Amino acid sequence: MKNRKILGILVSAFISLIAMLGIYFHYKLVPYNANRVKIGATYMTMNNDFYKVLNNEIDKIVEEKNDILYTRDPALNVDKQAQQIESFIQKKVDVIIINPVDANSQRLIKALKKAKKAGIKIVVVDSQLSDNSSADTTIVSDNYQAGVLCAKDMMQTQSNAKILLLEHRSAVSAVDRINGFLDTIKGHDAYQVVDRKDCLGQTELSMPQVESVINSAESFNTVMALNDQVAIGALAAIENMGMTNAVKIYGVDGSPDMKTLLATTSPIQATVAQSPITIGEKAIQAGYQLDKGKKVAKEIIIPVKLITSETVSDSDITGWQ
């Protein structure tokens, strides 16, 4: 009886050992992540709430599906972003979502072509690449129209303008906005561009740039800023220089901060709202469709909307759209 009991214990222990070894080798040979979709996302800078909101929408859906999202911030360094693409290739991601630091960077374009060759799907968001042959789809706001809307409002509310342009020349989205603005005022001599400054889309760069123009004695009464962050930097500069009654400022984004200022501060004339929430949703939807081998439109354009001090009360000023 005693021997049979010992035998039973040994058999049970052996079965348990086999089961444990089976589990161990299953996860050793078939990793836990094997069937999960892996997505790499890199944005020109996370020092911009627009990209944080966009990425949060992606993260929300990825988490719901129990998949994996790697989010990277190159901090406006195109070489660093190219390295991040290389890292995504090494991680064998299925989809890359990218907002390019520099649309014309050959190193970045080469890295994306390498990713494409490795079978990775490429989703470009918010700003195009100059060479989009590696992109499966590009999802952007109607940036040209954003510039048009700003120019039209200016021409309706001001009989003339001396304009300071605040740009980001390496970002196609920003270039499109400025081009939309310039094309609209073309042929109207009452509206003249007196200076142009590149601010890389950053508040901390636009403020000193605007102050330098003021100190140069260049006269302007209107600022067309490529985005709301730059517009807010311009506002800080004109407030510092005591020019709040002399200048009107336009931005693009429809950020909560800009909408609040629009409702409370006279120099802020208008912003054109784009939707990082919609772009994020469409980006991750496209990524999953592409991963499943489904077709996605080569270009997806998201409509934009002008918000002025008269219409801002119709918007949620506490959040993004």
From TrEMBL:
Chief place where the protein resides: other
Gene Ontology CC annotations of this record: cell envelope
Superkingdom per UniProt: Bacteria
Record carries keyword Signal: yes
Family matches, as InterPro entries: Peripla_BP_I, SBP_2_dom
Transmembrane annotation, as ranges: 7-27
Molecular functions (GO terms): carbohydrate binding
Domain Periplasmic binding protein: 42-295
Pfam families: Peripla_BP_4
Matches recorded under PANTHER family: D-ALLOSE-BINDING PERIPLASMIC PROTEIN-RELATED
The protein's name in its UniProt record: Ribose transport system substrate-binding protein
Organism of provenance: Streptococcus equinus
Phylogenetic placement of the source organism: Bacteria, Bacillati, Bacillota, Bacilli, Lactobacillales
